[in-house]
Amino acid sequence: MKVLILGGGGNIGFWVEKLLIENNDYVYSIQRGTQKIKRTHSKNPKNFFIIREDINELSETSKELVNNCDVIIDFVCFSAVNARERIRLLSDFPGLLIMISTVAVYDRSLGTNILSSVSSCKNVKWAYAKNKLEAEEALLDGLKPGRVVICRLGHTFDIVLPVPFGVGDWTFVKWLLDGNPLMLFRGMDSRWSLFHSRDVARRILLVAANAENFTSVLNIANPQSVSWLEIGKAIYSTLDIPEKFRYISVDALRNLYPYWSESVIFHKQFDEVYVGDEIKKFSQLGEDDWDLAAGLRISLNFYLRNKPFQTVNQFYYDKFLLLAANSQIGAQLKRQMQNGEFD
User: Fold this and answer.
1) Which residues pair with 30 in a beta bridge?
2) Are 49 and 17 in contact (CB under 8 A)?
3) Which domains does the chain possess?
4) What is the pLDDT of residues 251-266, one digit of tens each?
5) Contacts with 236 (C-beta within 8 Å, 6 or more apart), sequence order
6) Do residues 20 and 87 lie in contact, with contact meaning Cβ atoms separated by under 8 Å?
7) What does the DSSP 8-state code read for residue 212?
8) How remote is the C-alpha of 184 from its chain's centroid?
9) How far, in whole angstroms, is CA 180 from its chain's centroid?
10) Pairwise CA distance, residues 181 & 271, whole Å
11) Model pTM score
12) How many CB atoms are located within 10 Å of the residue 15 CB?
């Protein structure tokens, strides 16, 4: 199978490429640039090719390649404008287009949200999600049935770790290894459905190989959910260091770092559970790859074994220090301890 990947420079794209390479498929990845430090595929595989071009300004050779591929996986279709460009590009393409979208296109409210691929998308407030939804609609209208599948991805993690707020790179790991507490937001310990990028990639490729068994719009999301406290405990267990938690209020977080608190208030306050027939169809992959601890082992072992990626963003590390040592928060924590609220 020949697979063309558009914008595969992220974590999920890396795993899609890796799994295809290991399956001896031919993989072509169109990318405009690269990060300063980026994971690369070992052993220089002979069935993997990077094309340094802008998807919107492809050479004639690349346009010919497009029409000779079996599947295109598009990570960078962000708007209706992008979608219309894809439709023009794929006018002679006989294969399958998989557009990577987001579950953020669903309406959500406080409390528990039971979401499926037929849930309402009429009241989406986030501009990014609105644009993704418009891109979905344009592709579904502009391409023949059976030629496009929209994969709405749930929350994933990889070398960007699941954190309540702040940054999820080695800075966060170093903070914990230095004996500092994992800070959680008090009163908003929502339950999240998340899983590792490798397991997302496995499902995308299952769709690519068996598109006829899936609907044109489907969720690739974990039906299981975990609290932020459970996520924290799993991280400590994987690092094999003593647990240390500190609870802060969202108000305290907002007063000190508004940009972090908005992340909490905007989308980490929702409980999410995903249901639907597409979830059942992925069961053939086994339940073990949904496991939070298994995914964390992959991510944390990667950091622990790869020193070039062990870089600390001192700006954010200092922000964590200030947050933990803030006198207003310290007084609040003292009261929580006196009231038996502190774990």
Assistant:
1) 6, 51
2) no
3) 2-156+194-220 (3.40.50.720), 160-193+234-338 (no CATH)
4) 888 888 888 888 888 7
5) 176, 182, 242, 243, 244
6) no
7) G
8) 21
9) 26
10) 24
11) 0.90
12) 24
